[in-house]
Amino acid sequence: MIPKDKIISVLHPNVNKKWWAVNMMIYLSNLLKKENSVEFYTFSYDENLFSDNITFKVNCLSKLQIAYAIRNSDYIIIWNSPMHFVWVLSKLIFFSKAKLIWWHHHYPWYYGKDTNVYIWIKRLLERASILFIDEVVSNSFYLQSSLKDIFGIDSKILHPLLDRDFTKVAYNEVDFTSKTIFTYGRWVEWKNISQVFQTYDMLKGQVDWLKLNIWWIWNELDFFKDKYKDDLNVSFLWLLDNVSIIDNLQKSLVCLFPSKIDSFWMTIIEAMSIGVPVVAFDINGSREIIQDWQNGFLVNSDSEFTRKVLDILTDIELHKNLSINCLDIKLRFSEANFKKSLKDIFYS
To answer: Is the Cβ–Cβ distance between 104 and 147 less than 8 Å?
Structure first.
C-alpha cells in the first residue's frame, strides 16, 4: 500500500550510474508517482543514461535551494549523505513538517576503523541528524543489525525487488556441456574479486572447456585484462544491460559472488531468478538469500569456494536440483511483496 494525494520528495546525491541502489530509488519514485506528486532531487544526473527510466522532474540545485524546495513535502525519502543534512536544513531553517524516511542500501563504510577529520565531522553531524529522522529503512536483516550497533536505532526492512526484466524470463534447462562461470557487479578493490581468478586458475586444469565471463568496474581491471590477454577462455565484458546479463546467465552453470563485505547484493537474486546457482561466502546478506545445499552454496574459505564451484560444474543432478530451487527467489523478491512492505513504512 502506498500513500495517496501526497507531496513526496526523493533525494539522491548522484544519478549518473545505473547501480542497483539508484535503480531502486527510481523504481520507488515511479511507483509513488502513480498516486502522488513526486519530485526527485539530485546534484548530478545523466539524462541520456536514464531518459527511459525517469518519468518525473529532476532538479539539480544547491543544498540550500533543495532544502527550501522540499519544505512543503509530506514525505521525504533520502539515500546517502549529504541528503539527510539537506533535510535537516529544511527542518531547522524552513520549518518542514515532512516525515523523513532514510533508506539504507549498504553498510556505512565510513564507520570503519580508518578515519580522518572530515569523516569524524561527518559522523558527528550524522548522529545529530538522526534525531530528526522519523523512519530508518534497511535493505537486509544484516544491515538492520549493523545500523542498530552503529546508531542505536531500530529500522524496518524493505528488501529490494527483482527487476521485471528478470521476472519475465522463462526457465530453460542449461546446456551442461557449456562449462561457463560468470560474475558481474561493482567489484571495487575490497570486494575480493581476486577469488574469481583464483578459482578459475585452479579449475581450468580439472574442467575441460572451462570459460570465465566477467564484468565489473575496478581500478585494477587493466591488470587482470593484461594477465589473461592470451587466455581465450576468459572474456572481459563491456557494460551490461539487463538483456546482456540475462543472456550471459542463461549460458552459465554457476555464478560466483566472492565479496566478503556486502550487506546485500542483487547479483545473487538476479542469477537465481534465471536458475543459476550461486557460490558465496557465508556472511552478511548472502545468508538471507542463499539456502546452503538448496539453491546454492555458502562457504567459509577460499578453498571451499573453489571446491563448491567444481561440484556444481561436474555434478549434473546437483546442478539441476539447485537450479530448480533457485526459482523461488522470484516470489520472495516480487513487486507484490515490495508493495506490502511499504505499508509499515509509510503508515507506522
So the answer is: yes
